[in-house]
Every structure is written in C-alpha cells, then in structure tokens.
Amino acid sequence: MSPIESRLLPWVILTVLLTMTVFATLYVRQTSQLAERAAFDNAVQATHDSIQYRLDSYTDILTAASGLFVAHDSVERHEFRAFVQHVNLQQRYPGIQGVGLSLRIPADLLQPTLTRIRADGGQDFRVWPGGARPEYHPIVMLEPMDRRNRAAIGYDMFTDPVRRAAMERARDSGSAVASGRVTLVQEIEPDKQHGFLIYAPVYVTRSVPPSVRDRRTALYGFVYAPFRAQDLFGGIFGKQRREIGFEIYDDKVLPDTLLYRTDVLPAGTRPRFEDNVTVNVTGRSWPIRVFSLGRGFGAVLFPVMTFCGGIAVSVLLFALMRVEWRARSDAEKTAEKLRISESELQQASRAKDDFLAMLSHELRTPMTAIMGWSQLLFAPDLDEATHASAIDAIQKSSRAQAQLIDDLLDVSRITAGKLRIEPRAIDIGPVVRAAVETVVPAANAKGVRLDVQTPSGPVLVSGDGQRLQQVCWNLLTNSVKFTPRGGTVTVALRTSNHDAAIEVRDTGLGIDADFLPHVFERFRQADSSTSRAHSGLGLGLAIVRHLVELHGGEVFAESGGLGKGSTFRVVLPLLSIRTVTDEGGDAAPAVGDELRNTRILVVDDEEEARTYLSAVLRLNGADIRCAASAADALDLLQAWKPDLIVTDIGMPEVDGYRFLERVRASTDERLRTMPVIALTAYARLEDRQRALKAGFQAFVSKPVEPATLRAAIVDALAVSSE
After folding, report:
1. Of 203, 245, 295, 473, which has the fewest Cβ atoms less than 10 A away?
2. Are 566 and 603 found together in one domain?
C-alpha cells in the first residue's frame, strides 16, 4: 500500500462510516415512526378489545340471568338477589348499575298483577309514569337494591322512545339489544352521567318462538342492565396513564350522541395519529374516535443517538439485519400458511367437482339405458325377446334413477330440517321382512345368500313404518352391493330390556379402519375414483343415520378391516306392551275391557289432550279423573286414590318430574308405589332415558294412539301387581 493510499484510507473509511451513519439514521427515523404507529395501532386494538370483551361479558351475565326465568317457572325476589350477589357485579364488573327484570303486563292484567306484586312484598309498588296504555313494562326487580336502583322500581321503560325502540328490537329478534344514549332514572344526584341499557328478552315458551308474531305474543318480559358510561369505562380502564385518548359515540358521531370522552388535546393541537374503530354492542354500533396523546420523542431521539454513535454503526446494522431476517422468516411462514390454505381450498374445490362428476355419471348411466332402449322400441324388426329386455332395462334404469333422486331429495330435506316422520305403534318384524323381500331379486342375481332371523312374536316400536323399511332397505342393499358372489348377508332382529336391535351383517369387502368414523357422512365413499367397482353417491348411510335419530334410536357400524365384512346395528326404543296380537299383526285394538273399573288420574295442562285421553280410557271401561295442573292433581289425590296416573311432563309451574317427586314423597304408602306413566311430546332418546331413570314406569310419546296408550297402562299395572 502506497503512502498516498495509506493517507486516504482513513478518509475512505470515515466516508464509508459517515455514509453508513447517514443511511442508518434515515432508516432508524423511519422505523421509529412505524414503531410508534404500530404501538398506537396496538393500543387502539387493545382499547377496542377491552370494551368489546367487557360488554360481551355483561351480555353473558344477562343471558345467564334470563336463564333463571327460562329454567324455572317462577323466580322469587330472594332467588334473583342471591344470583346477583353470587355474580358479585360491583366488584368483578364495575360500571354496571345492576341487573333487573321488566315485566310485560297487558292492560287488562295490570291491577291483578299489581295486587300480586304488592302481596309478595312490594307494598309501595306502583307503575309510573301514569296513563292508560295497551301494555306496561314496569321494572319489578333490580339488584343490588341500593339507593339509586330503588328510585327506578316501577318505571315503565316502554314509555321512553329510546328504550322502547331497543326493547322492541330485542323482543322481535329474540336476542340481547342495547339502547341508544339515555339518562338513567337512577340519576338522582347532580352529577348526572350519560348511560345506556341492554335488554335480553324472556319468553313464556322458554325458547325463542320461530316467528316475530309468536315472539310478540309469548313475551314474558326483559332481563336488563342499566349502565352509567363514566363508571363503566372508568372501571374498564382505571386511572392508569394512557398514551391515547378516545371518544365513544352512540350510532353516529354527533355532539348529542357522545357517550364518553377521556383526555382531550389542548386547543389548536393536532394528534400525531388518529383512527376510528367500531364496537358492536349487541347489534348496535358505537363509533370510537381514537387519538394519540404523546409527542413522539422517539422519532427524534433515536436518530440523533444513531448519528452520534457512528462508531457503533456496524453493530447497529448487524442488529437491524437480524430484525430484517426475522421479518423475512415470519413472512415466509405466513406465505407457507397461505400456500397450505390454498391447497385446502383446492382440495375442497376438487371434492365439489368430484361429487358433481359422480352425480352426472350416476344420473347419465340409467338415462343412457332409458333413452337407448326407448329409441330401439320403435325399430320395426324388433323381436319379442329384445322388446321384453328393453322394457325390463327401462324399468330397472327408471327405478335406479328414481331411487337416486329420492336420496338427493331426502338429503336436501335433512339439510333444510324438513324431513318428518309419522310415528305410530308398529311391529318392526314385518317391516324387516318386507325390506328383505325387496332385495331378494338383487341378492339372487348376484349369488348372495340372505339369512333372516326374526322372533316369532311381535316386536313393537314407535315409528314410521315406511321410513324404517327405508332404513332396512338401505342397509341391506349396501351389504348386498359390497358382498361378492357366494357371500352371505345376515339380517337379525333382537330385543333387550328396553330396546329393539336390527343387525345387518355381511361377509363382504369390509371397511378400512381410517374410513370407519366417516361411514355415515354425506357424500363419503371409501373409493370415489373413476375406476371404482361400485356405483352410488354415498348418501344411503347418511340417510339411515338421520332417520334412525328421528326415531330416537342409534346406529352403529363395525368392521374388522378390509376383507373381513361389516356389521351395521340399528337400536330403537322398544314399546313396553304385553298385549299384542299374533305375529304380523298390529297392537291390540283401540277399545277393550282390560281397564274396566280401573281408576286412572290424567294430568295435562292442555284441555284438548285431557278430553282425548279421558274419552279413550272411558271407552275401555276405566274410571277417569282429570287435573289441569300438578297442584290440582295433588289436591285430588287427597280425596281420591287412583290405580294409576298418566301425566304430561311439560307443564307450567310444576312439571311432570317435580310432580312425580311429590307423589313419591307422600306419606301414603299406596301413592309412593303407584305406577305413573309419562306422556309427553319430548320424544328424543335422551328424554325417554331421563323419564325412566326418574322413576316413571313407562314413557309414551305424543301423539299417542289409543292401542299404544291402553297397552302401556295394562303393562304398567301388570308390573305393579307383581
């Protein structure tokens, strides 16, 4: 190196370092600005999330409170107070003024309702403001009952347009709804705050009625919560020092819709950053204007420090390179996730295309035979044998296409929730045998042996005979299709204590263990390739599962693996009926004399049901007494002792389960051991299991046929006499 080069080298290095320092300073300045913006964005998101989470929590509390009135026929003041105290609102959820109940009172029931409320402890209760209205919505409960909340008792919130609009939306939608900005009636002190309310509707039907008209008719009232904005948002954010300020508006950013404001900037000062977000409060929008309060010293200090620390530029660049590498790594991971998502979307698209192609193939195959043979039928030189073959092929293809369309329609009804059954007491044995007869030609043509095992006596279940035959037919055709020539398909009908089981077992191809959990899913086939050996859309087993579940039963699939055959088992609730006719017959006739002089108490809150049941039982010679409620029945049992009780489960105030508990708790030994039959429209498998576990001797679902009811009573009396 020459002296000149040695002399110039420090300057070159200095020039390089200064150049690097300048570029590094510019980079840090830009990065600082971005970091401050990111911190501001994070603070905005955190503010949004804190408000949203807290309001969602309050909505959950209201939903839980409304559950009290859904789960219980009557909620007393002390029970409601205990619930609110257990939630510990003021400590755990500061800002909520309380939780209350607004009762819907039609004008013609106002005075009786006021009398009842006053008799229950509200001696000074009154509805205000006064005036005649079609219906009233006074506040009847509000906890905690402090000085502010006491001032709101009796206030008819329906008289205020803002509150009324929110209550009507909640009533018609069936979900919680927030009101616009209001001044709470609890604001009895000079420092009044803006506020709002959230309403959750409660219906007498316990669940949300299906239509708006039904919701308006069945409205019981509202569980609601009033909020003071200053207390609410002060409780959410506390008094910690914040780097941002915000303003919360109701619905629109207007001076008269401002709910809450934090710190404000000095006059003439513009914030470094601003943003606008929206919080969804149970269907109502709150625009939030967020602005930064800091002066952004970092954007100036860090570049100066970087410039002054020129000697450390190399280290700084190394650190920045690591940051850049990490950012690139994160970007690559994100890109990989996007590629995976794209792959999944492509797979879903391919699955859709495969199904459409399969559907097109399955529809075109029989249509090809129909169209081809139809044209050949017009040939003048067609002999009789070919003519008969053409007719037979057209009929078979038409049936295949009709079955395919029926399966598609059934799946459509299942998806829309419109598939219905018409249950009645039937002997499942003939249903199974009829299904077997329909598949015998296909089994014979393929060389598959059918082995049918059914009991000699009747096996009674409550079901739709046509749909149950469809279940058996689908299972049988599936087994025949996948069983090779020379194989065997066994159909067995067995009974246990409370269930009837239909088992279809074959020696066919079997089911792979990986596919077995998906065997009842729609459009799923173990082999969906174009080279598959068996046709079909994969709908039959999905339809089987849905139909069995509609009957309150269960269906199971088992297989030892490929080449080891498969077993499908359908389990249905068995009717406990002893009086039946011979094999292949129906249940006993609707009228007989087995119940002559039998004293029976019928308990049902529906007058039409009581009239029907009493008429059916009197035709069979029984001595009938009816009660419209559990309380009436208990009073009647004091003076008249029946031989058996038939009671509805879903009744107001005291349901069938609580009525049974009171009967079993009686001091009268005869009442404690008296047979009781549950009669209900709740016909699911779990409903039946719950009723039998609770102590009912039998479970009969509505609508009930006379023969089914009579046989259940005879059976219960016979068991009781043993």
Report:
1. 295
2. no
- Phi and psi for 214 in degrees, rounded to 5? -65, -35
**Residue type present at position 459:** V
538/617 same-domain check: no
* Distance (Å, whole) CA 258 – CA 265: 17
Q: Is residue 302 within 8 Å of 320, Cβ to Cβ?
A: no
CB 631 within 8 A of CB 654: yes
Is the Cα dihedral 690, 695, 698, 700 positive or negative?
negative
pLDDT band at 366 (very low <50, low <70, confident <90, very high): low
Q: What percent of the chain has pLDDT over 90?
A: 30
Residue 471 lies in a domain: yes
Per the structure, how many domains does the chain have?
Answer: 3
The pLDDT of residue 72: 82
Tokens representing 7?
């002399």
Q: Are 560 and 629 part of one and the same domain?
A: no
Average pLDDT, the chain: 82
pLDDT of residue 347: 66
**Under a CB-based contact definition with an 8 Å cutoff, are residues 675 and 716 in contact?**
yes
Domain assignment of residue 227, given as a range: 65-235
Same domain, yes or no, for 565 and 604?
Answer: no
Q: Is the pLDDT of residue 586 over 50?
A: no
Cβ neighbours of residue 664 closer than 8 Å, sequence gap 6 or more: 671, 672, 695
pLDDT attached to residue 529: 46
Q: Alpha-carbon distance 466 to 487, whole Å?
A: 28
**Are 549 and 639 part of one and the same domain?**
no
- SS3 for 577? coil
